Amino acid sequence: MRASHTSSLARDDATRDGALEFRRPRIQKTSNSANLETENLEYSKPRVLNTSIAMPVLTVLCGPMFAGKTTELQRRVLAARALGQHVLVVKPARDTRYASDAIVTHTGERVAAKSARDATDLLRLVDGEPATPSLVAIDEIHFFASEVVAPINTLLDRGVSVIVAGCDLDHFGELFAPFDALIPRAHEVVHIRGTCARCSAPSTHSERLIAATERIVVGGAGEFLATCADCFRPSQRSPRDMPR
Ligand SMILES: [Zn+2]
Fold first, then answer.
1. How many CB atoms lie within 10 A of CB 214?
2. DSSP label of 12
3. Is there a contact between 113 and 162 (Cβ–Cβ < 8 Å)?
4. Could you tell me the domains of the chain?
5. Residue 25 and residue 104: Cα distance in Å, rounded?
6. Which helix (H) or strand (E) holds 227?
7. Which whole number is the average pLDDT over 87-106?
8. Where are the alpha helices (DSSP H) in 18-113?
9. What is the pLDDT of residues 132-141, one digit of tens each?
């Protein structure tokens, strides 16, 4: 029954405007469909308005490497700017993989950014802006470790919304320090998944291909592999490096 319904709609389209069959079997403009459109608009609003000055919000974008976190961060920055918001984009100075003055995706898309040497540098950059930003976007937040939590709380208390992106799990498979404090306070947490390099399931972990005992390692495709939890092979700690 469904097939005949679809072909009937497609035929209507074809006779009306010569459209290819099956190209866009339109839903007729009934009062119901008008309601649907209104509901969709209402649904999309909060994602943008969440970054308003009136009620500061903390948004966390997290997931493994190569999943598209920076892409999603860029998308939200551009969406906020399109609404006239003043957005400051910040990245850790130690991440110089692609550029020191931009957040750059692994596929080369870039948005200009200021470099912060450490977490205290974050407030200095905000205060150095010609006007107080309504939104501060921070990429690779895990590079700042737990020291970034206090300045983020200060920004929220000042009425500045904050959106962060980064790896929530380190290459030992453990939660990265800032996320244990940021996730409980976040108004929105988005788990961004890519594809497991071994089995093509959704990726959740970042596996270190080259042995390293330090927790924070700047690396790219040659040094990391994104995997699902089942395929993940955690880095091994030496006994003296075990977490306290
Ligand atoms: Zn897998």
1. 9
2. H
3. no
4. 53-193 (3.40.50.300)
5. 39
6. strand 224-227
7. 83
8. 31-49, 69-82
9. 999 999 999 9
Distance 38 CA to ligand 1 centre (A): 40
Compute, in angstroms, the gap from residue 224 CA to the centroid of ligand 1.
Answer: 14
Task: State the catalytic residues.
Answer: 140
Which residues are within 5 Å of ligand 1 (an ion), measured at CB? 196, 198-199, 201, 228, 231
Kindly give the pairing relationship between strand 135-138 and strand 58-62: unpaired
Instruction: Please tell me the pTM assigned to this model.
Output: 0.72
Q: What is the pLDDT of residues 3-13, one digit of tens each?
A: 444 433 334 44
Return the residue matching tokens 């596996």.
207
Residue (of 146, 110, 142, 148) closest to 206 by Cα position = 142
Distance 69 CA to ligand 1 centre (A): 19
| Residue 163 CA, ligand 1 centroid: distance in Å | 29
Q: Label residues 89-100 b or e (16+ Cβ within 10 Å = b).
A: bbbbebbeeeee
CA of 223 to the centre of ligand 1 (A): 18
Q: How many CA atoms lie within 13 A of 59 on its CB side?
A: 27
Long-range CB pairs of 174-177 (<8 Å, 24+ gap) are: 174/243, 176/142, 176/145, 176/215, 177/142, 177/145, 177/146
